[in-house]
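Chain A, query sequence.
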Amino acid sequence: MSRPQYPLALVSTAILVAAASASTVPALAAPGIAFGVPVVVDPIHTNGEPDIAIDPQGRVFVSGPTGTGTQRSTWFGSVDQGHTFRVISPGPPPTPIAGLTDPPGGGDTDINFDRSGKQYFADLYALTCLRTATTADGGASVNQSIYPAGCSGVPGADRQWLAVYDPASGVTRQSAYTGPTPLAYLEYNNVSTGAQWVKSNAVVDPQPGGPGLNYVNAQTAGVSAVTGYSPFGADGYPQIDQTTGKVFQAAGSQSTDGSFSLLLNIGTPNAAGDLTFLDNPTAANPSGDPSKLIHIADRLAYSPDTLFSVLSIDSARNLFAAWTVGGSGSGVTPSARQTYVSSASAASGWSTWSPAVRVSDGSTSTGDAVNVFPWIKAGGPGRADAVWYGQDQNADPSGQTGQSWNVFMAQVVYPTTSTGAVTGQPPSVRLVKASPHPSHYNDVCLLGTNCITTQGNRNLADFFAVTINASGAAQIVYDDTSNGLAQPGFTPANTQLVDHAGAGVITIAQQSAGPGLFGTNVSGASNSPSSALSDPSGDALYPVIGGTNVPGMDILSSQLSLSSKTLTVTAKIADLTNPAATVARVPGAAYLQYVTRWQMGNTIYYAAMENTALNQPVFFAGKAQSVDLCSVSACFPHVVTYPEPGLGGSAETGSISCPPTPSATNPCTLTITVKVADVGGPTGSNLLEEVGGYAFGSAHQQGALTNAQAEADDVPLEIDGVCCYNFVGK
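Chain A, predicted structure.
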């Protein structure tokens, strides 16, 4: 959404380090770190700025907005440790007719957890207010509050973040807070004065689903009545210390000499959980006292809020900051847009920050010349992973110069004391490109909602994220728009005046080798090509989270083979003998669709079989298409489709073979024989990336999907999937 900034006039003394003198790292120095085949979170829905989080039970969740035009955000939970995902929605279980039924919303999203694994979700509603939701069972049942949800009586809301205080029983608390835990904080930009902090606990929110649904003011008594005061830090991603209950938020500010500083604000809770911030008003400064803020970095030539300044706290309570400097207008050097990291220990009160280290390499040869959208996740003492999008040209990110973008990650390891506190000495840094191919082409518009005025592509929105699993392996969720999809004829002459090509396929890069953030090497499946991938039985659930298995959609494996003229696609499915019974198990489904999809070059291809209760299977293949919808930042592909013959796909031959008594241990075999000319003409020299097989229930044929149906999320519902592997024909 729009990103208003509220700079403070500062006279700063150079406490730390100027960007120009920050230390740097060698290009692509990343021995051992590797990533597996990227996971496609959803082969149907797309969105910008995806978020990722893993709960204490190891369950993986992803969310992101589809835009205020749809009034809907996506929210996914994985049923198989992050390999495939299913939609989460409040109210009745998702169906092919009404999947993600969660308006109003469609803006920025955030996810957080308490120690029990209860999940807290927040969605932005049209710069007006927030939708909040909770689930205690991984998404099988959801409670929500649409309004006020914490932002009653304020001018509006933008970029909201969650922080949950729920210390473990073994933690020695040093907090004045005496109320019940978990205590959930929600911070957002009120689009008038800046940051607004609200809270929710069992006292504030005792109804089913609470705390976490409704919020009340969390700024110390009397502060909210001071005209014009908001705690400094709006838009920066916050953190919370589980020992003291203190909250942290960092953002950039311009000094009176024209330079910029990155500043830290700390909020300290009282017995009720209300927060007193460093810059709280005083008699001399009734609108807030910026002189009390902590300086992370000073004398920066450009703003450090491109987008956003992000904090993360490690297991030894060291705080990390990541930021990308940037600017606009004449005289701005694009190559100055680089990513930096700094750290501070709890022993210093988080007030003494290490010299900023540039972790990007600024190189056109590696494709990391210019950076946007940093994020960071800390792990064990002194260890953190920072990520960003990097482009291969020294050009303005908002300029349309045909640039290519990739996902980069820098793993930083700071020296620590025997107690785990960072020493302030420079870290070692490993830099690696995490995306296997360019994830985006051309401009990444940084003008917020004003991108529509410049025909700027904002399909990536404003950020992406990284987290780690229980082993310390990085899990990076990003948008892959390299497919260049756009709905034919959606805008006049297809000139992209208001419709921008590139379906934002939500993708996860999972670290599979090299050091993790707990100091030991991690392991996982490599990205080496293979011909098949298996899937556990019994996970074709309806309802899609917490339901029971549907054997007719239970995919057990996916396999490809290639000859000179045909690509053979094979899937094992528990039982294909009774499509009528399968249709009856998924309310609203009239069609059963079994789709294998992959990307070759910059094109998504597929092979599929579609059936109905009448058991008349149709086999087809072709190029994926999209259905585009609109929002405040123009239009973009929201739904990826796999059209039938006559609707954009090509007819192929195929067969279904079943044993007398099919089961998960003796399944049916679905075979589709595809003419290679219908799927881009792959040969033994072509890499088919991110191959996955999916079983959908749909109310209609995919090629007939209308914009009105997509607007209502009347789209195919994934029941099962197997994802993902790379394939090269022999």
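The longest helix spans residues 579-585. The chain is about 0% helix and 40% strand.
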